[in-house]
Inverse folding.
């Protein structure tokens, strides 16, 4: 059974940093495409960073240079390092995995989801 569990969210002042973790079970991250998404209540879920099984990475334009997606295949954990956080980064962040190896950025193309973790950057 595939399971994804996020951790590491919280509240941080503008300019601060957080590292989100996503522990995966039931599959190995190095054979799946994985991604981080976020959602603000009332808005659609959007892609933030996605990585294919062979290491091709996509970032949402507004997070380029500030966020870094990575995975520790030995531990079956994926990460989202977030630096220089801004109030507009406030959202619930989700990790996701999809069957298939290429990069996809649409939430509907991911089959497995974590429960989400709140990130708050007050203005």
């Amino acid at each position: 059974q595939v399971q994804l569990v996020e951790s590491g969210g919280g509240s941080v002042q503008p300019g601060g940093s957080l590292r989100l973790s996503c522990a995966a079970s039931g599959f190995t991250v190095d054979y799946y495409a994985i991604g981080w998404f976020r959602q603000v209540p009332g808005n659609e879920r959007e892609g933030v960073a996605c990585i294919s099984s062979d290491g091709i990475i996509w970032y949402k334009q507004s997070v380029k240079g500030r966020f870094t997606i990575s995975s520790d295949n030995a531990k079956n954990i994926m990460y989202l390092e977030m630096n220089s956080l801004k109030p507009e980064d406030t959202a619930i962040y989700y990790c996701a995995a999809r069957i298939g190896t290429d990069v996809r950025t649409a939430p509907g193309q991911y089959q497995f989801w974590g429960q989400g973790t709140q990130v708050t950057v007050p203005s």
User: Anything to note?
Assistant: The CA atoms of residues 15 and 84 lie 4 Å apart. The two ends are 40 Å apart (CA to CA).
